[in-house]
Description:
The mean pLDDT is 96. This protein is of the alpha/beta class. Helix 1 crosses helix 8 (160-172) and helix 3 packs parallel to helix 4 (86-98). The radius of gyration is 16 Å and the shape is globular. It has eight helices and five strands, in the order βαβααβαβαααβα. The chain has helices spanning 13-23, 33-40, 58-73, 86-98, 112-120, 129-132, 135-144, 160-172, and strands at 2-6, 27-29, 76-80, 103-109, 151-154. The longest helix is centred in the middle third of the chain and has 16 residues, at 58-73. The two termini are 14 Å apart.
Amino acid sequence: MIVWLNGTHGAGKTTTSALVQQLLPDSRVFDAEKVGETLMDITPGLPETDNFQHWPPWRPLVVETARRVLEYAGGTLVVPMTVLVEPYWREISAGLAQYAIPVRHFVLHADQETLRGRIQNDTVLGPSPFRFGYLEPYAEAARTWLHAEAEVIDTTHLTPSQAALRIAEAVKG
């Protein structure tokens, strides 16, 4: 099974994914961003883009990597990855379905003010124009398709531990 944690930057995906992994027996965290980083390391580089998700190889490589890891190790993969483009999500979820891999899709949501504060005060990454730039696309995706496609966990007033517990209980329940 895959437990996909979606949501924009500052929602708590990375922190929560590590906590969810601790609560789900036989689970591992798979950071699909590493697939994008591998593509970014190709030289000479692939066509210029502002987001590696726009490269057509990224999506099937995420599916194939997840499939192969599950085939090899079994268990559950916890995937903290923002996907705000509906056709990209459809491609990934259809690819996983093709291999009969069940997906529990969660969106970690917080209001815009909370997200801005988290990004601004991030002591690890610091404030980032890149991360701020995804707040409006997230809001648009949430309004138009994303929240209808997932189980929404509002993290505005939750600690990462509380969010992780809700997700783990939903998956186990």
